Amino acid sequence: MESGGRRTAPWFIPYTLTIALVLAGPALGLAAHRHAPERGRHLKAPPALPQPYVAACVMEPRSGQVIYDLNMHKPWPPASMTKMMLMLIVAEKLHDGSLKLDDQVTASANATRMGGSQVYLKEGETFSLDDMMKAIVVHSANDASVAVAEYLAGSTGAFVVMMNRRAAQLGMRDTHYYSVHGLPPARGQQPDITSAYDSALLARELIKYPDVLRWSSIDTTGFRHGTFQLRNTNHLIRSYAGCDGLKTGFYDRAGFNVTATAKRNGLRLIAVVLGSPRKSENFETAATLLSQGFLNYYNYPVARRGQPIARSVAVRGGAASQIVPVWGEDLRLFTRRGEENRSFTLAFDLPARLNAPLAAGQQVGIGELMVAGRPVARAPLLAPAAVARGSLWSRLASAL
């Protein structure tokens, strides 16, 4: 019944068109240790009723901590959520400069033959990469997906190789792609396969890129000089406060799938729901999972930017003999409410001695937040003020 992990006691038992909330203490585990997750305390849950979905996962992306898991490693066809990997590859190439948003992408005859959701590209028609990506992310256009894949790799087959290579690099062990768009497989073909956990891992990478969230947060926009309207297939963009992505997918055997992300009060969460029989239930379940996450978890402030650490570092040849580094960023512990005082430690990666001169704000080390011996967050450590070179005599003395 399940694949790749046992079921975590759920927060709630949704059924038919009614959602009953059961606060049942989700499992706490780090994504890097997915086959042996650290389990947290939870309340005893009543017997489970049939779920109106096949698998689900909620992840805090900064730490990779999974706070809800139902069959999260169960292989399942993502349908158009397959396009999330295309989105990532494009975003990464925009980031490294090998692609530009104003690159011109021309539709091939192959692209124009795609069925399902499309923007009805004509052979030889050309649009900017930015416009093509809006069509893909907002409208889930299959023809635009083929056009972009061919532009990047020369053929859809070559692009699928790129997709599977990147999935392996991300540790997406439940995933294998056979297409660039996620359409139902033709006779003799294999369906694209992923899992709720792998979809969350992929979303965790996607949200690092502002262009992705810019595309995925669009409600409606024009295409082909405004003659064709794109309306976001992710209804949560319109109905759930703080939601700014990411992607939906559907065909009959896959059911309704969604990978959603939202940010509230400085906390971002990712929710994946796969295999819902009805679109409304798919969005309702994702919204409820996100809401329960925001209700039960938050980022507990451990250190503030500019706050000194409880350690000094010697300075060789400087006007000052030592400095006390300060945090370069806020350091926060993602935790369940009421469990803020669970055991954690701070570890500092600092040299035994620094050499003058030092600039104000210069990074001198790294501070890490450790839970159960594992790093869960890190932030740079900075010099609090400039340290000039000392006099010749002080430099000679410090060298002794």
Architecture overview:
The chain is built from ten helices and 21 strands. Strand 8 and strand 9 form a beta hairpin. 26% of the residues lie in helices and 28% in strands. The N terminus is likely disordered. The strands form seven sheets. Strands 3-5-4-12-11-10 form a six-stranded antiparallel sheet, with helices on both faces. Helix 4 crosses helix 5. It has two domains: 218 residues, Beta-lactamase, CATH 3.40.710; 96 residues, D-Ala-D-Ala carboxypeptidase, C-terminal domain (Peptidoglycan synthesis regulatory factor (PBP3), Domain 2). The protein starts with 11 loop residues before the first strand and ends with a helix. With 400 residues, it is an alpha+beta fold.
Secondary structure tally: strands: 21
Separation of termini? Answer: 70 Å
Q: What number of domains?
A: 2
Q: Number of DSSP helices?
A: 10
Features:
six-stranded antiparallel beta sheet; four-stranded antiparallel beta sheet; Beta-lactamase; 2 domains; single chain; 400 residues; 26% helix; globular; Peptidoglycan synthesis regulatory factor (PBP3), Domain 2; alpha+beta; 10 helices
Summary?
This protein is of the alpha+beta class. The protein contains 10 helices and 21 strands.
Blueprint of the fold:
Elements: E1 12-15, E2 18-21, E3 29-30, E4 55-60, E5 65-70, H1 83-96, E6 104-106, H2 109-112, E7 126-128, H3 129-139, H4 142-153, H5 156-169, H6 196-206, H7 210-216, E8 220-223, E9 228-231, H8 236-239, E10 243-251, E11 255-264, E12 267-276, H9 279-296, E13 297-303, E14 313-316, E15 322-323, E16 326-327, E17 331-336, E18 345-349, E19 353-355, E20 363-371, E21 374-382, H10 392-399
Parallel strand pairs: 14-19
Antiparallel strand pairs: 1-2, 3-5, 4-5, 4-12, 6-7, 8-9, 10-11, 11-12, 13-17, 14-15, 16-21, 18-20, 20-21
